[in-house]
Amino acid sequence: MLDISGSSIILTGERQRTEPWPNPWSHPLPAFAYSVESKTITVRFYCDPLVSDKWPRPEREWKDKEFAVAATSVASTRGLKFEEIARWVPVNALSTRKWSKHYVGHGPHNHCSVGVEEKAGDLRRMAWELEPV
């Protein structure tokens, strides 16, 4: 299963539901869709994707925006650190701290960065060719 952590795409599994739900630890996974016409991979979120002290923001600030997977992201890409989501983590998972073991980040315009950002600007960075395997 794929999820978004910060602006990075991560592999994840089901997480124990915690309250308030949804939250950055426990939430419906985003939906990914590929458009053959535009060659973009769009992402639809079912809870606020931006984790901050003001989480959650009003739905009007994120719910109707289009997000897409972009190469060479214009902003730094990184996953969330465990400390950023710890307040939503169930007590039995706090001791493992597995969340932070594979933290990776890339600076802006790094050729290795692939991130999720609002669909705007240079859409060429958001075009993907999918080939059969």
**Residue-averaged pLDDT:** 77
Largest sheet: 4 strands, antiparallel
- Shape from CA axes? globular
Q: Which percent bin holds the helix content?
A: under 10%
* H-E order: EEEEEEHHEE
**Structural class per helix/strand content?**
mainly beta
Low-confidence stretches: none
Percentage of residues in strands: 15-25%
End-to-end CA span:
19 Å
Strand order of the largest sheet: 3-4-5-8
| Contiguous helical run count | 2
Quick one: how many beta strands? 8
Rg on CA atoms, Å: 15 Å
Question: What's the short version?
Answer:
By secondary structure, the protein is mostly beta strands. Helices cover about 5% and strands about 25% of the residues.
Task: Write the topology of this structure.
Blueprint: E1 2-5, E2 8-11, E3 31-34, E4 41-44, E5 67-71, E6 77-78, H1 82-85, H2 91-94, E7 105-106, E8 114-118
